[in-house]
Amino acid sequence: AQSVTQLDSHVSVSEGTPVLLRCNYSSSYSPSLFWYVQHPNKGLQLLLKYTSAATLVKGINGFEAEFKKSETSFHLTKPSAHMSDAAEYFCVAGSSGTYKYIFGTGTRLKVLA
Amino acid sequence: SAVISQKPSRDICQRGTSLTIQCQVDSQVTMMFWYRQQPGQSLTLIATANQGSEATYESGFVIDKFPISRPNLTFSTLTVSNMSPEDSSIYLCSVVSSGSSYEQYFGPGTRLTVT
Q1: For A37, how many CA atoms within 13 A lie in the half-sphere containing its CB?
Q2: Does the beta-carbon distance from B108 to A99 stay under 8 Å?
Q3: Site from A36, A47, A103, A108 to mutate, B interface, most B CB atoms within 10 angstroms
Q4: Cα distance between residue B4 and residue B56, in whole Å
Q5: Tens digits of per-residue pLDDT, A93-108?
Q6: How many CB atoms lie within 10 A of CB A39?
Q7: Residue B2 pLDDT > 80
Q8: Which chain A residues are closer than 8 Å to B101 by Cβ?
Q9: Contacts of residue B107 in chain A, CB cutoff 8 Å?
C-alpha cells in the first residue's frame, strides 16, 4: 500500500538560512508527488508537483524539490528562509488512476528572527 | 486553477445536531473530494463526491454519518450528522480540474466546533 512519511514533525530555522523538509514515499510505482503549504487559519496551497517529468521541480516562493527514486524521497528545500515561510507543510502522494491523495503527517516550519 | 468557496467558514454546534457544509466551484470539475482535518493532524479523505450518484466512502466513514450530495459539476454538500465533540474538525472540499495532472485544489475549509 502507498504511504507517505514526513520525517520531522517540527523544523526550526533562522531567517536567511536553508530549509530542508524531508519526505519519503512508499509505492510499487512512481507516484505523482506534491508539496502543499497551510498557513494558520488558511487553506492549502500547492507549492509544487512531480509527475514523472524533470526530477528537480521548482515551485512557488523559491521552493524546490528533487525526486530520487533510488531513495524513494521527495525532499523540499529553499535556499533562504523568510519569516513568511512559517507554516505547516504536507507531502502528498497521488494514487494512480483514482486521483486520490495520501497525505503525510505534516511538518511545522518555524522561522526564527 | 479553480476557485473554491465553502459555507459556512466556521460554526459552533450542539451535540446531537447536524450541519450541512456547502462547496461551490467557479468552473466544472471532474472530481470532488471531502476531507477532515482533526486538530493538529493531517488530512484524512472522507469520500469522493460523485456527480449524480452515491458518494464513495473511505474506510471508517459511512453515509449515515456523512451524507454527501453532488447534484452538478460545480457544487457539493457534506452533512455531519448527529454530531459529537469528536467531530470537531476542519472540513475541506477539494477538486481536480479537467485536464490537470492530478493536482487537487482545496477550499478554505469549514471549522466546526461541537459542544
Answers
A1: 17
A2: no
A3: A103
A4: 21
A5: 987 667 788 999 999 9
A6: 13
A7: yes
A8: 32, 49, 51
A9: 43
